Every structure is written in C-alpha cells, then in structure tokens.
Predict the structure of Heavy-metal-associated domain-containing protein.
Amino acid sequence: MDLKIENMTCGGCAKSVTKAIQSVDSAAKIETNPAARAVKVETTATPSAILQVLEEAGYPATSN
C-alpha cells in the first residue's frame, strides 16, 4: 500500500505515522520518506483502517 501524506515533513512526523499504523497492525512493515511525503506499508489491516487511524493522528493520507 503506497500512501501520500502531505503534512509528514520530518522524522518526528514519520515516527508519529509509524506509531499510528502500528496501533492497528503491530507487525506492519513501514517505510517512510518524509522528503517525498510518501509511506509504503505492508499490512494485514484494511486500507480503510490505516487511512482512518492516520486521519485520527492528524496525518490524513491519500492512497496512490
């Protein structure tokens, strides 16, 4: 799952995004790239669950 998160601009943001995703799926594999505002996620959680938890954390995402 490839995501675009416009307001993920630094390492701190990336940690918050990672933590939010892991709250839904602790085994998720997550690659963050704050410079590109991109996140790659390998998860068993549904895309809607991931998008919802990111929205709640203050990092609304769009799926690429």
User: Anything to note?
Assistant: The helical segments are 11-24, 47-56. The chain has one domain: 2-63. The first strand starts at residue 2 and ends at 4. The chain is about 40% helix and 25% strand.
